[in-house]
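hey so u asked for the seq, here:
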Amino acid sequence: MERLPKIGIPIIIAFVIAIIFISKSTITIDSGKAGVLYETFSGGVLAEDLPLDEGFHFIAPWNNVIVYEVRQQEVFEKMQVLSSNGLEIVLEASAWYRPKYTSLAALHKEKGKNYLQRIIQPAIRSAARSVVGRYTPEQLYSSKRDVIQKEIFEETKKIVEKQYIDLEEILVRDVTLPPTIKDAIERKLKQEQESLEYEFRLTKASKEAQRQKIDAEGKAEANRILSASLTDKILQEKGIQATVELAKSPNAKIVVVGSAKDGLPLILGK
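ran it, structure tokens below
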């Protein structure tokens, strides 16, 4: 193999150095991410600097860029906590969070990329223990689930919002009680439901009896008024009206006027 000309070696070296320089001087940040610039000769990360947006960037080759996920993220937590009466409860929850975009440099400088383990997870566990400790197993199992979720969110948010983190939601996904406690609560709830159903049936029967009583009293009063108003002359007039209507009927009959009791018409069939 022929030797390369002496002038060719420096060109190759310069070309390789140029490639390395260019590769070190550019960075592409993907969608949903942002970069924190670390300046080697200018004090490292400046907390007040805004992050580098997604896209292509030129940087000095001696500097570095730390890339962060800035989209909404989710973390799951399964915790053992104590109720107000000291019973051990297993609580499963998830949190939606993201770093504050404009404070990304400060977050990196003060907390680092593992801010999830340093801040968010300990905050969720602390808030969950504090909140669950205020309630009985019965409340945790039934009526207070939404209240507990809201309180855990509010307490966790107070902790993390000063740490350059936006907490968007906490969802309590499951509350697991000791089997004996769960069975006892379910039996109690079933008994309460049956008691409510029995009271409802009693109330319904009582209202129906009251309705029938009022209806009967109304009919009796109507009959009393009607009886008091039916004089002999009114009955005769009604009888005459009925006779006229019957006389118009095409059916064969014999009507004897004034022959019935009380002077009412007597109707004889053919």
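The two ends are 146 Å apart (CA to CA). The helical segments are 8-24, 104-110, 115-132, 137-141, 145-160, 179-229, 232-247.
lmk if thats what u needed
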